[in-house]
Specification:
- There is one protein chain.
- This protein is mainly β.
- Helices cover 10% and strands 57% of the residues.
- The strands form two sheets. Strands 1, 2, 3, 4, 5, 8, 9, 10, 11, 12, 13 and 14 form a twelve-stranded antiparallel β-sheet that branches. It has a two-stranded antiparallel sheet with strand order 6-7.
- It starts with a strand and ends with a strand.
């Protein structure tokens, strides 16, 4: 089954601002010393959750035993709808040249990256069923609807332009989809009879999965395009006593067709 996925391809705008003192100020190019060629290697590991505590997340990541006190602590903090996610990425970028299209300081760049994105959405009953089993629902019905899980792994290769004076850049990437696992439960329930003598469940939702026979780094299960760019300047006061860098950046704005 093919799927065009926009959700987990990160389209994240990172905006860092600080205001300079004084009423009169202006935007000017950031004073970045030009370098003819350079190789950049970037690694990212991000993990976050709306309600789960770090000790539970660390236990899930390490795969070790999670005691009941840790599980209960996060259970007491849950909202009706909770979220958690993780990003692992590695990118290598090479920048070179001293002029392009007759413009001094305009450089070319090539970049390759590997990204592993995971996200979940779940309610209270899903958490209870996962970490405490169905015993708490004896004679009751657990509501599992509204839950979702998505895991994507993809690689990218692209090129673009880099402005040496400011550090700004723009890049277009071709994406290779390696893995997709996605579940969206629109409606789901589980009824547990007294003493666990019988179970009754209903499920309505969507399941997407890339070819399980094509796995590993070399697997080609999808393709796509993504645009990334960054604009850097500084906010400089009239007195020139304070200079603050201003950066607006968008990473991987695009799609993968699985």
């Amino acid at each position: 089954m093919s799927k065009v996925s926009f959700r987990s391809i990160s389209a994240v705008a990172l905006l860092f601002t600080s205001l300079a003192q004084g009423q009169d100020s202006s935007f000017v190019d950031a004073p970045v010393k030009p370098v003819r060629s350079k190789l950049l290697v970037e690694g990212t590991y991000l993990q976050d959750a709306s309600t789960l505590y770090n000790d539970l997340l660390q236990g899930l990541t390490s795969g070790g035993f999670i005691d009941r006190e840790v599980r209960q602590r996060s259970a007491d903090a849950l909202d009706d709808l909770n979220r958690a996610g993780q990003e692992i990425s590695l990118r290598t970028t090479f920048i070179s040249g001293d002029s392009l299209f007759g413009q001094a300081g305009l450089q070319w760049l090539v970049s390759a990256a590997h990204k592993d994105l995971l996200g979940v959405r779940f309610g209270r009953d899903v958490y209870t069923l996962t970490f405490f089993g169905n015993a708490p629902f004896e004679g009751e019905q657990a509501d599992l609807g509204g839950s979702a899980f998505e895991h994507q792994i993809f690689q990218s290769l692209g090129g673009g332009l880099h402005w040496a004076k400011t550090g700004s850049w723009v890049r277009l990437d071709v994406l290779k989809g390696q893995l997709l696992d996605a579940i969206n439960l629109k409606d789901a329930t589980l009824f547990t009879a007294v003493d666990g003598r019988s179970l009754d469940g209903t499920v309505r939702g969507d399941l997407y999965r890339s070819d399980p026979e094509r796995t590993g780094f070399g697997a080609f299960n999808g393709w796509g395009l993504a645009l990334s760019f960054s604009r850097t300047a500084v906010l400089k006061s009239l007195s020139k006593r304070s200079v603050h860098r201003f950066t607006a950046r968008v990473d991987d704005l695009g799609f993968i067709r699985w």
